[in-house]
Amino acid sequence: MRAQSQARVVTEWWLPFKVLHSTRSFAYLTIRDRLPVILTKVIDLVHRRASAFLEENQQEQTEDSKIVIAKLSKLRYEMKTNKPLMLVEDDRPDVQIWNDTINNSKSLVDENKVASFTGAWLVVECYMYRKIYEALALSKHHQSFDPFQEQKEASFKGLEESAISLALFLDHSVKYSDFSAGNSKSVKSIFDTLLQFCLWGNRCDLSISSGEILTNQGAGHTSHLQHMKENIIVDNSQDVWDVIHNAKNIRIDFVLDNSGFELFTDLCFAEFLLHANFAKEIHLHTKEIPWFVSDASKKDVLWMVEEMRSSSNKCLSLLGDHWFQRFQDGSFILQSHQFWTLAQDFSEMKSIAPDLYEELSGAKIVFFKGDLNYRKLVGDRKWPRTTPFKDALWGFLPAPLCSLRTLKADVQVGLSPGQDAHLEAFRKDWMTSGSYAVIQFAQPPS
Fold first, then answer.
1. Residue 187: CB partners within 8 Å, gap ≥ 6?
2. What is the pLDDT of residue 222?
3. β-pairing, 366-369 with 251-255?
4. pLDDT tens across 250-279, in order?
5. Contact 259/152 with Cβ under 8 angstroms?
6. DSSP single-letter state for residue 217
């Protein structure tokens, strides 16, 4: 992650983003500071489990917890001291892909084996979460344990008032709007509002806050959206609307990011799309393993719906019942694939996971939520910021796609000339604060 020569910055901007790393960069600080905090919290949680097992005189479970703690502590030490990345050793089907990735990764500063501070940021960050899973998978009593579950559940409960507010807006919209003409101004207005809730819900990212729940991360009330719209620095929402209300395909896909309130905003938008007859099926792509602290799994989605159903707020509970029925009748469909927890960017999906690429190609449009999905869409490379979004996808276009992302990493494309300089003059951390957002769209050639 050390700084490279200026000549390399100018002539090799297509290289993986972390080639251009310095000890002041966001990527370096993520690896040095944020990831060890996340890992320490996981270790502390397993420590508490070990203590509980000990109090209950469950010796086998206690010893099993100690083995997990030892593996996670070793991982933390190796990452903090820049030791080489170790191969993955469990029996999950992705092991060979992961080990090929580790073996084929190159140190960006010397001839040594790739390590935490010398590897591509995307690889190193994904590697940590994959090794956390490995420590659990190789245990006897922690194989189904999600170390981030408590934080994810607390993040939804902590923003319940925001969820109720949005549920009331959705309820009023579907009850009192005329959906007979899909291109009516009133329907377009609801579309724009729910799309923005879906966008700003992405601020609720526990991997950025190291697991801390920030009450100001809710998308806020509808009256606040107009002010927030000023911070959407690329807005292709009209292109998204044109595809959705004109196309005739029956399904829309969401590649989900965070569970909790962001997931709730995603499903509210999805509910509108179904109610307005813009789709008959919504496919929701989740992670198969605990990932980036707050990323949504199938279990997280179903937990949230059950939490809503038991709410004392009538609007929220009725919406939970309605969504439970949608999962039963197949209008909401949960899907997962191991590709979402690999370190590869999406331009490699066609060769590594052709079945998933083919699956996505059946959608009217695919919404990619969040920062990590954005980094994988554009290869986590230091593109010139005026590079067209479609060019940065490197051929990944199984269907029309839209990235809904609040900026929390210093990679961005699709800006107009001089726009980045203007933003930086106003706020130095514009690419990492989560205060700015993009709605970026691309579609295959007709």
1. 177, 178, 179, 181, 245, 276
2. 59
3. parallel
4. 899 999 999 999 999 999 999 999 999 999
5. yes
6. G
